[in-house]
Amino acid sequence: MVLGAFDLPAGTWFPTHEHPAHQLVWSARGVVAVKAGDAGWVLPPTRALWMPAGVRHRTGALGRAALRGIYADPARSPVSWPEPRMVVVRPLLRELLEYLTGDGVAPGARLRAEAVAFDLLEPLDVVPIVVPSPEDPRARDVERAVLANPADSRTLAEFGRDVGAAERTLARIFVRECRMPFGTWRTQARLRAALPLLAQGTPLETVAFRVGYSSASAFVAAFRRAVGVTPGAYFAG
């Protein structure tokens, strides 16, 4: 492993890049976000993201964060997941990662600790939240409105009147350019907007209301259908 530590001010984003090595994206303190194409993840200290070598991505700090750079040579790594995977960071793995990113670890002790750390990589089976951007300027206007206010309850017909397009036209555009119906796309956009709030400990009722759901139970049901686990399981300590 190659390791490093970076203190990131809130709002700091690295440009889109890729690594020749596998990376475990983890923050010892604070919340970080990762975007790879149209997919996105939000990671409190209890979660990390395995990023395979060669996958283009961006990493940023949603608040002040202590990012740890943990890289593994693909030729020597016992883990070879081909797609990004969220990983559970339990206390033992956390202590090992902190130990490995510290100074003065002897080579033999480092190799033994790395072997244990790889054994402790426990994937959490979640579906990444994907919010593709349309190309059509009318659909882009709808996208901007929804991303600016996920709780906006206008129907596609109402959006259409505001952007100068028929409801059916907009519906076809979202299916063609985003590869999903508008209703699914808006759900994904709302859930992505909810992730930073959940990671920062915002009460569930407040999160649900701020992203357009009438109740916490409705929000939890939508989250579980889309992601595969409840918000509590996604961010469990």
Automatic annotation (TrEMBL):
Gene3D superfamilies: Homeodomain-like, Jelly Rolls
UniProt-listed SUPFAM superfamilies: Homeodomain-like, RmlC-like cupins
Record carries keyword Transcription: yes
A Pfam family recorded for this sequence: HTH_18
Keywords carried by this UniProt record: DNA-binding, Transcription, Transcription regulation
Source organism superkingdom: Bacteria
CDD domains registered for this protein in UniProt: cupin_NimR-like_N
Keyword ATP-binding included in the entry's annotation: no
Boundaries of every HTH araC/xylS-type domain copy: 140-237
SMART domains: HTH_ARAC (SM00342)
Name under which the protein is recorded: AraC family transcriptional regulator
Phylogenetic placement of the source organism: Bacteria, Bacillati, Actinomycetota, Actinomycetes, Pseudonocardiales
